[in-house]
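so i finally got all the pieces together for this one. its two components total, 227 residues if u count the protein bits. some of the lines might not be protein, just check the labels. i wanna see the whole assembly predicted at once instead of chain by chain like last time, that was a mess tbh
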Amino acid sequence: EVQLVESGGGLIQPGGSLRLSCAASGFTVTSYYMTWVRQAPAKGLEWVSLLQSGGGTYYADSVRGRFTISRDKSKNTVFLQMTSLRADDTAVYYCARDRLNYGIDYWGQGTLVTVSS
Amino acid sequence: QSVLTQTPSASGTPGQRVTISCSGSSFNIERNYVYWYQQLPGTAPKLLIYTSDQRPSGVPDRFSGSKSGTSASLAISGLRSEDEADYYCAVWDDSLSGYVFGTGTKVTVL
């Protein structure tokens, strides 16, 4: 059974850093595209970043240069390193598996990041 | 501000047909496949439609997707109370080199 479990969220001050983890089971993260999507309180979905199976990375303009997506094959885990955090980064962050033409087919339960002083 | 525009809300009575539109551009919808996601309150999104008009296994055939030019649509026929949710379109945007999600449509079953 495919499962994605995010962790690492919490309250952080503006300008701070945080690393989110997404532990996968039921498949190998290096064989699939993996993506992060966030949702600010009472707002819509916003795509954040994509990690291709071949290692290529893509970022939304709003996070490029501040966020880094990566993975650890031995832990079957995907990470989102977030730096220079701002209040408008406050959101639930979802990790998801992207099957390209078949869509984003599995999502984690999300982890809440709150950026506030 | 999203480059994909959706009507903020739609509603219908049980059994009715509701259509949700998603308006984009030549850089996204016209060139690439459209995806639709359903988000029930307090839960993660769920894939409803892929490659613009295909349903994953387990998604009822009451849901159908279509695309024409720079616009796409999701239709829900035989509306049911459990369809009350937020619906988002999504597509890869070649000019942004990233995915974009629509602004979202809240469907209410009256």
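Chain A has a mean pLDDT of 97.
The first strand of chain A starts at residue 3 and ends at 7.
anyway lmk what u think
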